[in-house]
Write the structure tokens for this entry.
Amino acid sequence: MDVYRHRGLHASDIQGRVSLEREEVRRFAVKKGDVFFTRTSETPDEVGISSVLLDDLIDGVFSGFVLRGRLKSTKLLPDYCKYCFSTQAVREAIVKSCTYTTRALTNGRVLSNIEVLLPSTIEQNRIVSTLDDIELLIATLEEAVSKKRSMREGIAQSLLTGTMRLPDYGGGWKRIELQEALAFCTATIPTENIDVNDYVDTENMLKDRGGVVVNTKPLSYAKVCEYLSGDILVSNIRPYLKKIWFAVHNGGCSSDVLVLRSIDAERYDPAYCFLLLARDDFFSYAANNSSGTKMPRGDKDAIKRYLLRVPESIDEQRAIAEVLMTADLEINNLEHKLEKYKQIRQGMMRELLTGRIRLVQE
């Protein structure tokens, strides 16, 4: 997992500890500049993933799940090793050459025959500097997303339980059963009446309030379940739990997706109800009240009885929903920006590590 998580390994990244004899420490010793490749995995795509050690380690060793490559000359810079084994051509060559029985597997002899494009050390340094800049930007954005998510969860926990109140709101709270605010909708609609991109199933729903991605499958059904803007869509099949979406347009969905619709929007805000259901408490409740063996499904009668904690004031419900959905929008925007820069990084690596674009000397 150290190799999977880091292109470049620093001493602070490595937390594993084992007890070894002194001779074993000598045989499996590592030093700065060593490159490690994953030796085996469930799938070929995860074989030959690389990471380079950028610090010296006292009594550092490598495990049998990775292969160690050691630099034989100064023509290849350690920092350049963070990137040069990740090009499409190198990855394809590694995947193509690995063997597969019960697990995918590679070895040092096979990896030794993989060809890598190698510019001069001067150009290697320029490429590393350029790619390090985009890596730093991505790491900064990832940290910002993580902090925003943590803050949002803390605020949600306080606002949705009433332990923190918004200014100007001080009324009472109550517990109600879900069926008092929401009803299951089972109406169907002809497939021809919806855009294929508005079809939602358990696979194209994203986890943790992530919404949905565009459907890529042709629809072969005569009819699908109908949903409307403002409905709450919940995956109701065990492998895909923790998938929930607040619909922002009309469309159709799979029968494995529950459609919950507001029945009293003047007393219970649909967006607030969605936020209550988009939490681990509800997902655990649905999982614990599911039945079936291979593909368990939630019990609708039990879900109807799930308790919601709500402010008596509809205005306070709407205010809480606005605060949290604004936070979700900010996080989504950051995540889109992060994904954009990851795509830019892929493009830069593709061009710079293959020599298609050369960096001029300043």
